[in-house]
Amino acid sequence: MLPYPEIDPVAFSIGPAKVHWYGLAYLTGLAFAWWLAVRRSARPDSPVSREQVDDLIFYGALGVVLGGRFGYALFYGTEQWMADPTWLLRVWQGGMSFHGGFLGVLLAMFLYARRHRIVFGSLMDFVAPLVPVGLGLGRLGNFIGQELWGRAADVPWAMVFPKDPLQLARHPSQLYQFALEGVVLFIILILYSARPRPAWAVSGVFSLSYGCLRFFSEFFREPDAHLGFQAFGWVTRGQILCLPMIGLGLFLLWYAHRQGAASPAKDARP
């Protein structure tokens, strides 16, 4: 068993204000997304110009935060939300959902595409490779904050999280998700998008890959205490939410390759 490397979840304080590592993970993820978007905007097939990148990241950040919070309330905290509607605004108490953030980014990018007259599918293909690093850093934030830990385990690298009331040796599932949703997914998308693809193909690979990787990692993650297992004694809420993403990814890949050649990036409508 490995000792848990206790790290203060507060990175630093400025007077009464405390800056948590989890918040810094979000900011670093957005900064990396901006840097990568600037680099990818120089490609001849890019639907986004350098001048449009800053606006793109702003839209994306709003989609992540608002969608992530509403998604958590809807998918994981409905009873708490109904009992206390103001809880939705207390984001400092934690509670963000990837699947909610995914829907939030979809809506934000749809509005961005309409504003800048960009084909929606081409825009989503541009955005997809920008996401995994932020996801991975968020999982490191979960690890430092001792949240979303894994199921009880007897593997040599199991850890006892000090905040765990049962003090069980557990899978460090946050690190598994960092490796899968952050590193592996990033490599898949960077390699796949290295050359032009039909519109929606890169998005399809993102949705399919994330859905499969998250579904697998959920086997090592302790389900939320107030939800438990949702079906068959082993299916979690996270796995259920991954199924539509897997289905969407398969559909988008079929649709993209059925269309054939890559679609134009700019909307030709008057």
From TrEMBL:
Alphabetically list the UniProt keywords.
Cell membrane, Lipoprotein, Membrane, Transferase, Transmembrane, Transmembrane helix
List its EC numbers.
2.5.1.145
Broad EC category: transferase
* Pfam families in the record: LGT (PF01790)
User: What pathway annotation does it carry?
Assistant: Protein modification; lipoprotein biosynthesis (diacylglyceryl transfer)
Under Gene Ontology molecular function, one entry of this record is: phosphatidylglycerol-prolipoprotein diacylglyceryl transferase activity
The lineage's top-level taxon is Bacteria
Q: Where are its TM segments located?
A: 20-37, 57-76, 96-113, 118-138, 175-192, 199-217, 237-256
Which residues are noted in the entry as a 1,2-diacyl-sn-glycero-3-phospho-(1'-sn-glycerol)-binding? 139
Bilayer topology term: Multi-pass membrane protein
Q: Where in the cell is it found?
A: Cell membrane
Q: Provide a GO CC annotation, any one.
A: plasma membrane
Could you tell me the Gene Ontology terms of the biological process aspect for this record?
lipoprotein biosynthetic process
Alphabetized PANTHER family for the sequence: PHOSPHATIDYLGLYCEROL--PROLIPOPROTEIN DIACYLGLYCERYL TRANSFERASE (PTHR30589:SF0), PROLIPOPROTEIN DIACYLGLYCERYL TRANSFERASE (PTHR30589)
Q: Which HAMAP family match?
A: Lgt
Q: Which family does it belong to?
A: Belongs to the Lgt family.
The task this protein performs is described as: Catalyzes the transfer of the diacylglyceryl group from phosphatidylglycerol to the sulfhydryl group of the N-terminal cysteine of a prolipoprotein, the first step in the formation of mature lipoproteins.
User: What is the protein name stated in its UniProt record?
Assistant: Phosphatidylglycerol--prolipoprotein diacylglyceryl transferase
Species the sequence originates in: Parahaliea aestuarii
